[in-house]
Design brief:
Largest sheet: 7 strands, parallel
Number of helices: 15
Strand content: 5-15%
CATH topology of the domain at 34-197 and 253-339 and 403-414 and 458-481: Rossmann fold
Helix content: 25-40%
Distance between the termini: 32 Å
CATH architecture of the domain at 34-197 and 253-339 and 403-414 and 458-481: 3-Layer(aba) Sandwich
Strand order of the largest sheet: 1-9-6-5-4-2-3
Shape: globular
Order of helices and strands: EEHHEHHEHHHHEHHEEHEHEHHH
């Protein structure tokens, strides 16, 4: 078994500035707009370096799907719904999925309803969970089955759209674009042999259809009956019981079967957006809320395990080179992290004479401090991240202090990019400058409150300019190998 990897201690707080407004990092390079990409745009040739930090001077060029680009499967983050990526706030133009489609990609989003996440509670009955020694079953295995079904749908869509003439039987390899917890769950999917067995993806699709229909029926009951029906469906229903089992030609796996020899053959790349790749370090003061599942993933497949930088078994150079040739095509790993908010000092420890900024209760810097503490341990004060996940556990960029996924092919760090799409008013943010507020500059107030947005939504990993930053890194790494 591979050695365990845990979170390094958070970096020491940087020197604080005079005002708490300076705890924000506000970009001017892009906002949540797509700058008319529905009419087309520039073709990006790829960034020149594996590690990229977004600048605040120029808008990134539009990146369109390149020749032989496979389909993209979006893996939602914890607590998210499919609609958060397809039509957030009811706006079908501004979702991550439609923005990628306008760039020419075939896109499929894992099908989830927010209430599906109640299934994670299945792990509460496991003693291993309370000891912090759980794996991805039973709390998260249902999610991996949904990924298997989505990968199958994406392959079929791509083949219907692209296979003609001599290429009629060509099968693509997908790119997993995984947000937040979807990133480490995507790593579990890559290494699970049970999920790649013949017939499993089809069986997972049938079970998904059954579960979606059952939740739809529960929704129509209303009130208390709906809540009870939903709880029964997500917590106690089993695909191996009753009529569902009779219709399953292939039984669904219920536990992982780790494989370290080769990755899932359908996956070409994994892009992680604000993913906490490491659990809190022992003694950091934070408990692994996954009950050990995240630590288990790192024990099985540490770092960019199936990437091109993976080393052999330490034999002679010729033998190791031969082993590399025999391996399947390596997976491209790209980590994307946001640098938007610095955790504020705790209110009770503020000292105006020391010059340390104290963020008001309910502001993003105070919220970020608590989120960073929960994700990585430590105090959270002075730590930089996307307001939910610290940069150092989401990034693989050594230059930026990233330790999240060693060996990744590329790391993109985006200034001013927040963890999730959200409207204004979630926090009590300040305007970017007192003079702008005094002058009644509405655009200035909106940019300050949104971290760059002019339309009431903060820039996040799925915003137009952000997408082009990480797509450029993905394109460079994938085309280099073709």
């Amino acid at each position: 078994m591979a050695t365990a990897t845990t979170t390094a201690a958070p970096p020491p707080p940087a020197a604080t500035t005079a005002t708490w407004e300076d705890l924000y990092i506000i970009p001017s390079s892009f906002d949540d707009d797509d700058h008319g990409d529905e009419e087309g745009g520039e073709q990006e040739g790829g960034s020149s370096a594996a590690t990229t930090t977004a600048t605040t001077t120029t808008r990134p060029p539009r990146v369109l799907a390149w020749p032989n680009a496979g389909p993209i499967v979006i893996l939602p983050g914890f607590g998210n719904d499919t609609e958060d990526y397809e039509s957030p706030f009811g706006d079908a133009r501004r979702g991550l999925a439609p923005r990628l489609r306008r760039r020419g990609f075939v896109v499929e989003t894992v099908r989830l309803r927010r209430r599906d996440w109640l299934r994670v509670a299945r792990a509460l009955g496991s003693p291993a969970y309370w000891r912090g020694q759980a794996d991805v079953a039973p709390g998260y295995y249902w999610y991996l089955l949904r990924v298997a079904a989505a990968v199958r749908r994406a392959e079929k869509k791509w083949m219907e759209a692209n296979n003609e003439g001599e290429n009629k039987e060509e099968k693509p390899r997908v790119v997993l674009v995984a947000h937040s917890a979807g990133g480490w769950l995507g790593r579990a999917f890559l290494g699970d042999a049970a999920l790649r067995a013949a017939g499993v993806a089809e069986a997972a699709q049938r079970e998904e259809d059954r579960a979606v229909a059952a939740l739809g029926r529960a929704t129509g009951l209303g009130g208390v009956r709906e809540a009870l029906a939903t709880a029964v469906e997500v917590l106690f229903s089993s695909p191996s019981s009753g009529r569902a089992a009779e219709e399953q030609a292939t039984p669904l796996p219920s536990a992982p079967r780790p494989c370290v020899e080769e990755p899932h053959p359908s996956v070409a790349a994994l892009v992680t957006l604000g993913t906490p790749h490491l659990p809190p370090a022992p003694g950091s003061g934070a408990r692994d809320v996954t009950g050990g599942a995240l630590a288990w993933v790192n024990e099985q497949w540490p770092g960019a395990f199936f990437g091109r930088r993976r080393r052999g078994g330490g034999g002679a150079a010729e033998e190791e080179e031969e082993q590399q040739r025999r391996r399947p095509s390596p997976v491209v790993y790209v980590t994307v992290a946001g640098r938007a908010v610095r955790g504020a000092p705790a209110e009770q420890s503020s000292d105006s004479s020391s010059g340390s900024p104290t963020a008001p209760r309910g502001s993003a810097p105070s919220y970020a401090r608590e989120a960073y503490k929960a994700v990585a341990g430590g105090q959270g004060a002075g730590v930089v991240g996307d307001a939910v996940v610290p940069l150092h556990v989401a990034s693989s960029s050594e230059e930026d202090g990233g330790v999240g996924l060693p060996g990744a092919d590329a790391s993109v760090v985006l200034d001013g990019v927040w963890h999730s799409m959200s409207r204004l008013g979630s926090f009590k943010e300040p305007p970017p400058s007192a003079s702008g507020a005094a002058a009644g500059d509405k655009r200035g107030r909106d940019e300050g409150r949104a971290g760059g947005s002019r339309r009431g939504v903060r820039p996040w990993y799925g915003s137009g300019g952000a997408i082009d930053q990480w797509l450029a890194a993905l394109k460079e790494e994938t085309t280099r190998r073709s």
